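Re: Re: token formats

Sure, here are both.
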Amino acid sequence: MEKKILRAGIIGSGFAAKFHYDALQRVFNTKVEIAGAYSPTPQKLADFTTARGIPAFENVEQLIAASDVIHVCTPPVTHEPLVIAALQQDKFVIVEKPFTGYFGDGTVEFNGDTFPKKQGLEHAMESVANMLNAEKNSKGKIMYAENWIYAPAVQKQKELLQKTGAQIIWMHGEQSHSGSHSPTYGQWQFSGGGSMIGKGCHPLSAALYFKQIEGKARNGKPIRPATISARTHAITRMPGFKDEGYLRTTYKDTEDFALLHIVFEDGTIADLFASELVLGGVHNWIEVNTTNHRTICNMNPNNAMQTYTPAQKHFEDVYVVEKMETKQGWSFISPDEGWFAGYQHEMDAFYRSAAYGAAIESNSSLAADVTATIYAGYVSAEKKGEEVAITIL
């Protein structure tokens, strides 16, 4: 069968746009033509498009019209209007995480530390509902770009759950590192929160996904989250914090540590950590404890390849792994970081769905549950860990 041709349009010109472009080079089930890119920052757009030999668009409407699949690689504050604009033109839209959220009241006085978190929950769920309604009225679909779902380790655990009929009784996991790439990260008005949403969305997505898979395999319907107890802290903003220059410390009004305790509707639990306080590269893992097996999924780091050099100068031109402070000594060097993280598998799956109608593993329902859980978590953290019900749309 001849492969279908799909045109891709990329909104954004930063870190996420770059790895989306790279992942598109590994889409094999369809032929992808890059229609072009748009960014509100002219110089960054020119740099991004010139380096890749793709067209630069003057406005986002023209790019959407020229594309079959739109990649939203922009700060979370922009996601809702861009996703809805693409869906209104019946386009498939791949939207980066976090999906959406609450980004303040638009005033210069807004402060993420002090606003009522229930207000944030209400606004975030309204944003989710707007996006889901736009999807219902469109021929296109929302594809939630949570690469953890497509990581090979996570997909193998999916198979184990389906074939063993196991009950998941407890999960725990983490995403942490020394600070985000994004210049706007750490300002609630752009990011919609700190570590809980920016990092916690990853292991949370995997935990919610595993319970969906388990429920479908055992009872024919997904098992959803019911309540959350959470705590957040701003360690690097403490007056007594000793800054030695290794951790990012430019957070304005967001947390740099979060702990989430989730109770599912069947009474089982998950404990997840997210922080900007970890040196030595990205720490991405989730452990799944079930009634008949135990699995540890290590996305970063893993020991597929380890290398040692006595002096960093030998590796100056070598990419080792994301967020590593030094290349001297032993490193968990990744032979193919995108493969282990699920980026290429994610993109291939999304384009297979857009071209041939295959089911989407990381869909708008998962994105909605993740958003609902996190913003209920912020309400809980405001109340020093009080248990809060999770709104399921």
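Second one below.
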Amino acid sequence: MATEQEAAGGDARSWDEERYRKSILQERELRCRTVFRTAFAPSQNPNPDILVVASSDGSLSCYSLASCIASMSQQLDMATNLRTAADPLSADPLSIIPAHKGPTYDLKFYTHGENCLLFSCGDDGRLRGWNWKEILISEFIGNLLKPILDLANPQHEGPWGALSPIPETNAITINEQEGSVYSAAGDARAYSWDIETGKQKMVFKGHADYLHCITARKSSHQIITGSEDGTTRIWDCRSGLCTQVIQSGRNLKSKLSSWVSCVAIDSSESWLACGTGAGLSVWSLLSYECIFNIGHYAPVQDLLFDDNQIVAVGSEPVLTRFSINGATLSQLKCAPQSAFSVSLHPSGVIAVGGYGALVDVLSQFGSHLCTFYCRGLDNYS
């Protein structure tokens, strides 16, 4: 029987073809796996506690940030002693569930009332609501945990009675006061659902192409959607009608149009930021005038407001902070080579997720608290 040392030295007698094949596939899958969304879980703790991650393998997973930061600090100490660079952690989640068939694209928390729900959406066209307490008390759940809400985008009848493929659900937003969840779908439509009954309330039709993003303007009973057609539309939630079309994807200099990948509004709901394949623009929601438009060689893939500043990430390993007037305030290198998600905790901590199953967690001062790989469902099956 060959020893482990002999095997490490290449002794063919201990060769395990199946193990080698599995390791190659896992390495390839890890390199290609993508984190599409991160969100800080609601907590009484003033410091960030749990980060929830939506991945391209269809999973929802929860990570203890305190554990990840402690492990990263220990690894950095060892790397310093050995004079080597510390690699990102391969972090074990507190719990992980197979949420969707195909990638999980978005997740949002619904915290109105006593029961906290975690909503997710994905490539299978499903919009699902999970009991957050049940997720927390379990480890790998597999198919044992069923969603308490399971909604599907309707199929639309075409010529000769043909049904379209089930359109993927790409983004969701929630209005707790109304008890509604809104979804942006690949069939160029947005949908409104009643959280208590699970019934569809409204369909928003008007875009000419695939929807990438959606957000709620709660004070005005509106939602805002961004599309592959290069426009951002504002909708009245009570009538289902489009009240404003913003050409946010149009480059003012070249007159060319690009898709709208992400939208965000500030806490006063007076300003709208739109990220596109060609750059970033900010609009007044009072006058619908463009405040500034910045062309960029790398597509913007997610953004958010941090008080009067805008934080954006995209298809380069950089986290950029802009002023409300469009001035670049800072740029920080982040771990994912292409970032699809940026999340902000009330304490100022930021999480960036993206390509390679990587999540980078940064302090409010810009230092890297931890960087970790998200382990996929294949590690727990």
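The longest strand covers residues 316-323. The chain has a mean pLDDT of 86.
- S.
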